[in-house]
Design a protein that fits this description.
The chain has seven helices and ten strands. The chain is an alpha/beta fold and 252 residues long. The protein has a single domain, classed as P-loop containing nucleotide triphosphate hydrolases (Rossmann fold).
């Protein structure tokens, strides 16, 4: 699954964002793919200030399958949102593959996220009026990666990986919940991102579909992907190679 991203001239494309390196050109992550450094996140609510994350220090290496567990309100989703650039830390620094994500402006984060992160949501987030194939193409169209003619070919390939190539021209509503989540995983892989981030990816699936999704994640890790999975399910968490537990916004 190591496919090269190319532009119209067949040359590999580079993301045009700040790489977060120091003056010597060296990444500040000490070789780790992901590094949180003293990351805190505070929200102002009607009830006052709420601390979702507090002084989180965390490193994740390439090829790890990490489950993130904790009670509701422990900071799991906030951690994933900061990792993917959906949200920004109030304090601290987050580096992903050398990129200083906390320094990126909103537009830069969107470009970086599209090329670096594959995100799998609990509720699939497929566009109902687009075919399965068109849904998988969306990240490639948005980021401008791969030649236009190659996008359908890659989308078909990714659907074959999740066993749904025969449903390429169906609408999402014609598929089961497990099949829709498989399409969402194929879409997350569209730009060949190094990191897959998931928030309760099996929360709306039956037990058989959930096991199939986790098996697919394990296969992706074997192929070199790094996966972070938020889950409340202890059995699913045990399938990961490492577990990070959060309580009251802190790693415990």
């Amino acid at each position: 699954m190591q496919l090269t991203r190319t532009n119209g001239n067949g040359r590999r494309r580079q993301a045009n964002v700040n790489d977060g390196r120091n003056g010597n050109g060296k990444a500040r992550t000490n070789g780790s793919l992901i590094a949180f450094e003293q990351v805190s996140k505070l929200y102002n609510t009607s009830a006052g200030e709420f601390t979702a994350l507090q002084d989180v220090d965390l490193t994740i290496e390439r090829g790890e399958f990490v489950s993130i567990v904790g009670k509701s309100g422990s900071g799991k989703t906030t951690l994933i949102n900061i990792l993917t650039g959906i949200d920004q830390p109030t304090e601290g620094r987050i580096y992903v593959d050398g990129t200083a994500v906390h320094n990126l402006k909103e537009g830069q984060r969107a470009v970086w996220r599209g090329r670096t992160m594959g995100i799998v949501f609990q509720f699939f987030q497929l566009l109902p009026t687009l075919s399965v194939l068109e849904n998988v193409r969306i990240p490639m169209d948005f980021s401008g990666l791969y030649d236009n003619g190659a996008r359908d070919e890659r989308a078909h390939y990714l659907l074959s990986l999740v066993g749904l190539q025969a449903h390429a021209h169906d609408l999402p509503a014609q598929l089961s919940g497990g099949q829709q989540q498989a399409v969402a995983i194929a879409r997350a892989l569209a730009n060949d991102p190094p990191v897959i981030a998931t928030d309760e990816p099996t929360g709306n699936l039956d037990s058989v579909s959930a096991r199939n999704v986790i098996q697919l994640f394990e296969d992706l890790v074997e192929s070199g992907k790094t996966i972070l999975m938020v889950t409340h399910d202890d059995d699913l968490a045990s399938r990961a190679t490492r577990t990070i537990a959060l309580a009251d916004g802190r790693v415990v």
